[in-house]
Amino acid sequence: MTSFLRPLAYRHRWIYDTVTAVSALSVGGVSRLRSLGVDALQSRLESGAAVLDLCCGSGEAAAPWLAAGFSVTGLDIAPRALDLAAVRQPELHLVEGLAEDPPLDAGSFAAVQLSVALHEFSRVERVQVLNSCLRLLQPGGWLVLVDLHPAGPWLQLPQRLFCALFETETATAMLEDDLVLQLNDTGFCGVRQELLAGQALQRITAQKPPSVQP
Ligand SMILES: C[S@@+](CC[C@H](N)C(=O)[O-])C[C@H]1O[C@@H](n2cnc3c(N)ncnc32)[C@H](O)[C@@H]1O
After folding, report:
1. Distance (Å, rounded) from C-alpha 210 to C-alpha 44?
2. Among 79, 122, 157, 182, which has the highest number of CB atoms less than 10 A from its own CB?
3. Whose CA is nearest to atom 10 of ligand 1?
4. How do beta strands 201-207 and 109-115 pair?
5. How many C-beta atoms surround the C-beta of residue 6 within 10 A?
6. Distance from Cα 140 to the centre of ligand 1, integer Å
7. Domains in the chain: ranges and CATH
8. Nearest C-alpha to atom 25 of ligand 1 is from which residue?
9. Taking CB atoms and a 6 Å cutoff, what residues make up the pocket around ligand 1?
10. How far apart are CA 214 and CA 69, in angstroms?
């Protein structure tokens, strides 16, 4: 079940941006939320390295990577979001496609970011998306994933309300699953999870084993 607010938020950017701003308060604001990916990986990557922002939307979470000097590609399925990304982030190389089967060459990225996007996929699709990430990374490359996590006591109710109003059952399903286990099962190594925002958010970094060929 999806509430009427979700399609409305995707149609009217100001609703989407306001909801994002309010939910980001728990992590210290929107710019902190958007920088979680680059903050986690910047020191592990060579300057100017190729980075993929998978499910980039309108490019806000790609912006801190661009500002840090990385060469960033953004992929999304939604042409409307990509049009907005082209205006908001002109340096972003944009690709329209499916995250489950991205039209990109294997082993072409030093890092892949999935910023608040994995919860959009069903369990079956989630496996495909994580396999895509592994395929697209260079050996030794890094994945950073920022997404929902079951909240601690203080934020349990707001999180349930948020999911009921703006998310689909795929988000609820993801909250029941252990992403660390799933990343290990996919073939990633060095998987590290941090819980943020009263545990309502998780940031996970994981590496493609250096010896595995794309
Ligand atoms: C909640 S938004 C997050 C956008 C962005 N990553 C951010 O942090 O602001 C989820 C994005 O996933 C995209 N998306 C959903 N399903 C997709 C798919 N199968 N392939 C590629 N993108 C998809 C949507 O179009 C949307 O832009």
Report:
1. 14
2. 182
3. 117
4. unpaired
5. 16
6. 25
7. 5-207 (3.40.50.150)
8. 78
9. 55-57, 60-61, 76-78, 81, 98-100, 115-117, 120
10. 25
Q: Are 75 and 56 in contact (CB under 8 A)?
A: yes
Pocket-testing residue among 19, 60, 65, 76, ligand 1, by greatest number of atoms within 8 A of Cβ = 76
Residue linked to tokens 């689909």:
168
Question: The tokens 């100001």 sit on which residue?
Answer: 14
Element (H, E) at 110: strand 109-115
What is the C-alpha radius of gyration for the chain, rounded to an integer number of angstroms?
16
Local confidence pLDDT in tens for the 214 residues of the chain = 567 766 766 667 777 677 677 667 777 788 899 999 999 999 999 999 999 999 999 999 999 999 999 999 999 999 999 999 999 999 999 999 999 999 999 999 999 999 999 999 999 999 999 999 999 999 999 999 999 999 888 777 778 777 777 777 898 999 999 999 999 999 999 999 999 988 889 999 999 999 755 5
**Residue 94 β-bridge partners:** 74
Q: For the chain, what is the largest distance between any 2 Cα atoms, rounded to a whole number of angstroms?
A: 47
Q: How far apart are CA 214 and CA 107, in angstroms?
A: 5
CA-CA distance, 80 to 84, in Å (whole number)? 6
The torsion defined by the Cα of 73, 207, 132 and 90, in degrees rounded to 10, comes to -10
What distance in Å separates the CA atoms of residue 78 and residue 98, rounded to the nearest whole number?
Answer: 9
